[in-house]
């Protein structure tokens, strides 16, 4: 049994490291605020945030949307995003997401800027909640 313990321990660390670095989840307890920019002229994000979320209940809507989305298995073929979302954590850390959603869409898609080859489909209920943040 003692011979297997180091093997089991190294496998556990390997799996946890893989999950940590391959997960698009946002950790809600660290989020301080969210900046949402419109993507202008298919070239760049607007110079200042279009929407600023700093209330916990509003941040939770966005965080829960990201964390409950489903990974898209197909190859992505996307146009320029509608929004750029910067999630600002404590200790000056930041995650950036590109978001495709419009006021007349029933669902949305996002990708993490760190890995744009993986897309995530936003659930329909979450799309409705997210649209209340974007189009209020």
Assign the CATH architecture.
Sandwich
Please give the count of helices.
3
Spell the H/E element sequence.
Answer: HEEEHEEEEEH
Mean pLDDT: 81
Number of β-strand runs: 8
Based on CA inertia axes, which overall geometry fits?
globular
Top-tier CATH class: Mainly Beta
Q: Report Rg.
A: 17 Å
> Stretches where pLDDT falls below 50 for ≥5 residues?
12-23
The main sheet comes to:
8 strands, antiparallel
CATH topology: Immunoglobulin-like
Helix residue percentage: 25-40%
In terms of DSSP E residues, the strand content is: 25-35%
Instruction: Give the distance, in angstroms, between the N- and C-terminal Cα atoms.
Output: 60 Å
Which structural class matches the secondary elements? Answer: alpha+beta
Please, how many domains? 1
Concise structural overview:
The protein has three helices and eight strands. It has 136 residues and is α+β, with helices and mostly antiparallel strands.
Structure description:
The chain is α+β, with helices and mostly antiparallel strands. It has one domain: Immunoglobulin-like (Sandwich), CATH 2.60.40. It is built from three helices and eight strands; from the N terminus they run αβββαβββββα. It has helices at 4-21, 56-68, 124-134; strands at 31-40, 44-45, 51-53, 70-71, 83-89, 94-100, 108-112, 115-122. Strands 1, 2, 3, 4, 5, 6, 7 and 8 form an eight-stranded antiparallel beta sheet that branches. A hairpin with a 3-residue loop joins strand 1 and strand 2 (44-45). Helix 2 runs antiparallel to helix 3. It is globular. Mean pLDDT is 81; it is low at 12-23. Residues 41-134 form the YhfM-like domain. This is YhfM-like domain-containing protein. It holds the Pfam family YhfM.
